[in-house]
TrEMBL record:
Family according to the record: Belongs to the TrhO family.
Domain Rhodanese: 126-220
Swiss-Prot/TrEMBL keywords: Oxidoreductase, tRNA processing
Alphabetized InterPro entries for the sequence: Rhodanese-like_dom, Rhodanese-like_dom_sf, TrhO, TRHO_N
Protein name: tRNA uridine(34) hydroxylase
EC number: 1.14.-.-
One Pfam family linked to the record: Rhodanese
Catalysed transformations (reactions): uridine(34) in tRNA + AH2 + O2 = 5-hydroxyuridine(34) in tRNA + A + H2O
Gene from which this protein is expressed: trhO
Keyword Oxidoreductase: yes
Amino acid sequence: MHQKKIVVVAALYKFISLPDFAEIQEPLLSFCQEQGIKGTILLAPEGINGTIAGSRQAIDAVLNFLRGDTRFTDLEHKESYTETPPFERMKVRLKPEIVTLGIPEIDPNEKVGIYVSPQEWNDLISDPEVTVIDTRNDYEVSMGTFKRAENPQTQIFREFPEYVNEQLDPSKHKQVALFCTGGIRCEKASSYLLSQGFERVYHLKGGILKYLEEIPAEESLWEGECFVFDERIAVRHGLEEGSYELCFCCGHPIAEEDKTSSKYEEGISCPHCFDSLTEDKRTRQQQKWKQHSQHIMSD
């Protein structure tokens, strides 16, 4: 029986001092390309962050290559699997930060919140004394979140400090529980809260994805779906693929109910971008969609 080739998708990050981060770029890029790996890895003075895809053998080779550096010996990663390669090329980019908060002096290597396992998370966020905060952006929160969670309504992560300064008070919010997709944003967010005088700051270890992987749906306090930054768009419990698609025009996630809107036209607009479409842009978008459809039919 013919079996489809499975592509391994590995997500990884680690906060660690990398003063030589620029020198790592070229050897890492070359090695990934030699292995046929595709994806993006960010390097910064504060560490490494990336998602890569390839064969089982190639992913293992790159992880072993990274862990050959003593600073990455304990590098953790999460895996998912797909039949369709999610990336077109391999990039290793140099950045000021591996996740952009906009305050470089915030260093999770120096101080970070208390890690909470998925198994302990339900009890924590059910405590009325604990303020539960979703650190993701507004469009992600709109697709799903935990019960009792507050939505900072940020458009980008750089806006999170402003939300903290305006809406939270260390003297009132004695216990704060943070969560995000895979855990990396909470490293920065928890470090920032601690720098602002908050006493006890918790964050979900492994993020929402680890929770959905390990906690049965019947025991879960998660509601909705979780946005992911790959071709699946969203996942449910057990990391099963969700129901969302991306608008061909603006790239915003769209649910089935969005398609019933008078503002939805396949390939042209959705409720999130309809009002910003000029006639000229609509005409260009119609042409793009026509070319895309012809390309799909010819494959």
